[in-house]
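Thanks for the sequence, V.! I ran ArfGAP with dual PH domains 1 right away. Repeating your input here for the record:
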Amino acid sequence: MASDQEHSRQRLKQLLGKPGNRTCADCGAADPEWASYTLGVFVCLSCSGLHRNIAQISKVKSVLLDPWSSTEVEFMDSVGNNAAKAKYEQIVPAFYYRPTHKDCTLLREQWIRAKYERKEFLCVERQEPYSAGYREGFLWKRGRDKGQYLSRKFILSEREGVLKYFNKHDAREPKTVMKINTLNATFQPTKIGTAHGLQITYLKDNSTRNIFVYQEDGKEMVDWFNAIRAARFHYMQVAFPGASTSELLPKLTRNYIKEGYMEKTGPKHTEGFKKRWFTLDDRRLMYFKDPLDAYARGEVFIGSRENSYTTLPGLPPNIQGYHWQFGITIVTPDRKFLLVCETEEDQKDWIAALQTVINRPMLPQEYAVEAYFKHKP
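Predicted structure:
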């Protein structure tokens, strides 16, 4: 018996070396060591836990630790990740977000459910909730002042080019209208404090505005997210007719480059340093009094090295009034911004994040944004 098991294990190890099987079938993580022996796919430990939520469809085992019958091994050999992908991901819309191992549990679980449980990518009619160009429903939205979550009606309309919400369910006029061309959405479960928490941002008078929403139904939340991506994709196809799909996809939604607390001082460098929540969103470095504030206390445009932007470790001499020890000086053509981090690791991470932006040449449209920042009152 032991020799049969040893033979099965060796066969499975060989299968793990085949093209497609070296990464998780669902999130792309390297070296999966688990498998669904009813679907015939190799998955990582994290995704194997999500497969257990659809136990009527997918049954999982450890490749290395659990016993395997020769029949199960034969099935794994007959399917494998590439064949399963060809079957279950036949018609994934270009705009649909395919999560990676770095993404939150909600995105990964709903991707797994969409593929194997709902079979959304075998039939375009099943993609209507995010492909129709119009979506309406109720989301819990965080109130700007008191911070409590209230049910609000949201409407996304590609034809109008907007996402809007209404303060009262029977209201005729929306409380806020957000244009699709400046819209972004990113899941923020830790920051918002709920597994389904979504942060939506938009520009109003070229300043960033945040709204925080969630829904108890995980599928609903991911459908909203992909509906926003679809609307952005179709808007961009019209706005940038020469751009390829691969050029547009990274622009549909974006995660923030980095977030966290730092201390800052004012433009004269004589005020005491204050602790603020910072968000680096593409070329905008924003700071907030609270991570869940509706709008930033200030925004700094981060240009490129060619345009005299740089970041330096430490602070200029004779600066006082800070509590933390690890300084950063951001040099722009107009002034220096002084920040302080709590740890040396934070300092290194922030400098690295800022440098990725500074090392990137500016696009033509970014010069217009920079000009706006320079002339901002």
